[in-house]
Amino acid sequence: MTAQQQPSQSYVHGAFEQLIYVITSTEQADAANFRFRYIADLLVGGVLVSRVRIYPNTAGAGVFRVDKLIQDWMSITKADMGTSVNEINDKTIHKLGANNTSEIWCKNNGENFRKVEMNFRQEFSTSATEDPVIDPVNNLTGLYISCIMSAGLYRPTTWDEGIPDFLSNENWIASYIPTSYTKQVFSDRKTDTNFTSTTAPSVKVVHQDVTAYEVRTLGLGMDGAAPQSSVAVSAWIGLYNTSDTLISSGFITAASGGGTAPGSVTTDGARLQYIGVGPWNLTIQQLLPDFDTEFLAGNVSYYEVFFMQDGTTVPANGTTGSMASLCYRYSVVGSDCMYGNTNYNFVTLAFQNSFGCWDYQTFSLLHQRKTGSINRKTFEQVAGNWDTADANQDFNFRGDQGGTRIAQVSATQEMTANTDLFNQDEVDLLESLFISPNVFLIGSRGESVTPIVITDTSFMRKKNVNTRSPFLYQIKFKYAKERPTTKGGTYRRYS
Fold this sequence. Notes:
Immunoglobulin-like, 6-stranded mixed sheet, single chain
């Protein structure tokens, strides 16, 4: 057997790419072999989980599309994997650093990033009447695929431009593996030319505004072996005041902060890891114990996060060779920062991005909450005390009984949220939000995580022809769960 075409084992692939194998066999053309079929086996963690049989095509080859098989064994990470089993429902991943103050890193759930094995076999019979038997000799084994929860579209500028580019660039994910100061991590947020890193001015910046009590995470590839070859050993975090003075800083290594160092990664759970980087994550964690004082005192104007190849080299222009990523900068703002109006309260959404990790967007202008569609289940009630009438009690019509009655009421809650002034890079991130299959409303400090459904059915991308004219956007969504209501019922009797 020969694999004429297969996904490259040298690259990381999106589980939602079209992953094709073309298999040929000399036994297929042998007229003495009847009822010939190709077999594809999917192994996850060394265990056979799926087997598919197909007949050869007209050219005698077996063509397998295996991404559909792999997708059933992939999922996003919603809980902090550093917690015990009985806590996993309460310890959301968004609260890294608060779930356990000595662990701000965490592994994924083991399904966010998979290294699966494809084996191929063949079966045939020696007569037209016998049942086919699997050939014990001729097979292909050890064909591994590294997969992430992604559609696999390389995006040089926007996702739609990525389709033709992906066809000629199978190694699209290389730009998102932390191996140098030019690399990003698994986020759809783009670099922002309006900001310059204070720590290392020559390094590009990915920027976002956050409030003091918000949570944030970043997901990044951490397998030191190929095809990732990650070198991200630690995260360096520096806090700055309004005068651009560094007021506190420090390293948090993956190995000592709840994660696993790249050189020690052996499982799927460690191949992709998360770190809490929001203001509240950094306030609560105790690996850098003076951070809480600076955040709670309101001294932090912004902070910068770099992933580093060691836990000692401070990021700077002269040390870019020790960096594993570009700069992630977070500006700490208040609800009244833009218009001086404290009635403008924030709404924060966390959503599954194109890598199967988490991105966040805060809607900082006034939002409106309302009761949406109301559904009533009714029944026709017989008038009078029919259920209590007997020899001692006559039947009587009563005004509170009879006719159409309500058995149950269900109602949805809807919300309209408005953005602040967005530049083009932030507009592109909104598109990722609109097409995300998993979106959650995140409460202050990450104390609540509520599933929602975006109700807008279209998204209009606006081209900014004037860099001094940002955009305002509005988004509408409803809560995934219905609003609790009381239940109606049938009247029984007067006491």
